[in-house]
Write a structure and sequence with these properties.
This protein is α/β, with parallel strands linked by helices. The protein has 20 helices and 24 strands. It has 3 domains: 255 residues, 3-Layer(aba) Sandwich (Rossmann fold); 42 residues, no CATH class; 240 residues, Nucleotidyltransferase, domain 5, CATH 3.30.420.
Length: 569
């Protein structure tokens, strides 16, 4: 075992400024020390070989910001420990968690670390990977690395970029730098000396297990986990975050794990400058305070989900997917006494969420008033009689049926004929321009509504509806703008509804899944939850057709003959 290193030793050798935490003191007691020459070597590589590739600084040397140098690069490459196996000093840290808000340059920094490990680590045939769950995300960091090679004459001379695969090869050592995702067939049996994971919060357990144990034969392996906060209370990222926090507070001891965590206090005001500084170390460089404060004020105006997204991406706070999407005080404020007769002849848009045979089916009509900036909702919901009588999900289905808020279908299954009759009736009452529908389980029913129904002899037994139908793919792309705008209108008190308690229950059930680009789609508050959101999903599909939403959806439009033509992406 290496001899303990003291603060006096550090002062004598001129590196005491690098003792930055209790964890460092514990590591010194185990024999770890700081090698200033190693750290400065890494900083010199960034300055002399790397170039920034985006914005007004593109082409300039990669001069490390103070936090990047003091918190990441210096500690990662300067701290060392003695290895009896290799009979040499090796890096103390083999895992780095970089937990920082968006737009603080984590992806370029991660890519730069990958290039340093590719070119300078000294191993023949080394393998560096940019890893993420999907191929597109993996390429974000990797594209930064490729651009840095292209921008640097010295790196261009030392490395070759294979343009068909964008693999980077360091010519002198035959080391390679490759993008890797869960979709890659070659991820099993990796033998890496460096892996850079981008957005750890979306990495699944399967990929994590492959990446975590890909370093068995390397002298100085390095796993860099760069991420913003996620929206789950469990999973790989939350485990690593919790572990890093436990190292910082002393409840866990791991000399090889470097937690670099920038986050705001949990209950802070999102416009508080101290909170914004805590999560954004690149403030004044890649992040502007005025812009952050403007975005924070705007988020407050746009509702609970916008505030949650701001907390997650700009304050780097964990936002639980269990939290409801809509502010229910604002939702309840939109309750208004009206019924079908008050809306007869008005223009509207529909959304149809046709369930499996035993579940809740919902048909929503959304009546936009663009002049007033409001929408009114009218919902029809159906549930099988057996589900009403035997339900164990604690929802008062019998009360809702008896109160006329939900329609009961006799027997064990949904009566699609009953639903078609009701939609045809409503089609005659209102000016329904288009009905969005979830293709799952709905194609036949929609085809009969759109083209009419015929008996065995070919005689028409039901007229076609006047409205058009368009398939609405249940993707985050299609839901992003409707979710954003609907939440905004709820916040403004502009979503009016007749106080249907079943719909209000569902409004409180809806959570949203948010991707790294802040797009969102509705989800139930848990995979095994019995709480329904079908009425709200139907509402959002109808709302997506209104002028409040300007995005283009990938859709299938029914033609007059019942055939379908695909439109969009």
């Amino acid at each position: 075992m290496a001899e303990p290193v003291t603060i006096a030793d550090a002062k004598r050798d001129g590196w005491d400024e690098w003792i930055q935490s209790e964890a460092d003191l514990r590591a010194m007691a185990a024999g770890c020390r700081f090698d200033v020459a190693r750290a400065e070597h890494a900083r010199a590589f960034f300055r002399d070989f790397l170039r920034l590739t985006e914005g007004h600084c593109a082409g300039q040397p990669f001069e490390l910001q103070e936090w990047q140098w003091r918190r990441v690069i210096g500690p990662t490459f300067g701290w060392v420990r003695w290895s009896d196996h290799f009979r040499a000093d090796v890096r103390r840290f083999d895992r780095v968690l970089l937990f920082v808000a968006k737009k603080n340059g984590k992806s370029p920094l991660a890519a730069a670390i990958g290039l340093y490990m590719l070119c300078v680590d000294g191993e023949q045939g080394g393998k560096v990977f940019s890893a993420a769950t999907d191929r597109e995300q993996a390429r974000i960091v990797h594209n930064h690395a490729v651009a840095m090679v292209d921008f640097s004459e010295r790196l261009t001379a030392a490395c070759k970029v294979h343009r068909s695969t964008f693999k980077i090869t360091h010519k002198a050592t035959r080391s390679t730098y490759t993008a890797l995702s869960s979709e890659s067939r070659s991820k099993e049996g990796l033998n890496a000396n460096c892996i850079v994971i981008d957005e750890l919060h979306v990495v699944d357990d399967e990929l994590w297990k492959v990446l975590r144990y890909a370093f068995a034969s390397r002298a100085e392996p390095l796993l860099v986990m760069a991420t913003t906060a996620g929206d789950a209370s469990h999973g790989v990222c939350r485990q690593q975050y919790n572990y890093g926090k436990s190292i910082l507070d002393g409840t866990a001891v791991d000399h090889g794990f470097l937690p670099v965590i920038f986050e705001a206090e949990r209950d802070c005001d999102i416009e508080d400058e101290n909170a914004l500084r805590a999560a954004n170390p690149s403030l004044g460089v890649t992040v502007v305070m005025d812009r952050l404060k403007t975005d924070a004020a705007e988020a407050k105006q746009h509702g609970a989900s916008a505030v949650a997204a701001f907390r997650r991406y700009r304050l780097n706070q964990w936002v639980s997917a269990e939290n409801p999407w809509l502010n229910m005080d604002w939702w309840n404020a939109g309750a208004e006494q009206y019924n079908e007769s008050d809306l007869i002849g008005q223009r509207c848009f529909g959304g149809l969420d046709l369930s499996k045979t035993h579940d809740l089916t919902a048909f929503a009509l959304v009546f936009p008033d663009m002049e007033a900036g409001t929408v009114r909702l009218l919902l029809k919901m159906w549930i099988p009689e057996q589900r009403v009588n035997e339900s164990d999900d604690s929802a008062p289905w019998r009360d809702w049926v008896d109160g006329g808020h939900v329609i009961e279908c006799p027997g064990r299954v949904i009566d699609y004929a009953m639903i078609k009759r009701e939609i045809r009736r409503l089609d005659q009452l209102f000016q329904i321009e288009c009905v969005s529908f979830d293709e799952w389980n709905a194609t036949a029913t929609v085809g009969e509504l759109d083209a009419g129904e015929f008996d065995a002899n070919g005689a028409m037994i039901a007229e076609p509806t006047r409205c058009d139908f368009a398939a609405f793919r249940q993707t985050i792309r299609n839901f992003a703008e409707p979710c954003r705008q609907f939440d905004r209108l709820v916040t403004l008190g502009a979503v009016r509804h007749p106080g249907n308690p079943c719909l209000t229950w569902q409004a409180g059930n809806v959570s949203v899944y948010t991707d790294p680009n802040e797009n969102m789609r509705p989800v139930k508050p848990g995979k095994k939850s019995n709480r329904k959101i079908d009425g709200m999903v139907a509402t959002l599909m109808g709302f997506a057709r209104t002028e409040f939403c300007t995005h283009e959806t990938g859709e299938t439009t029914y033609q007059g003959d019942g055939s379908m033509t695909y439109v969009g992406a």
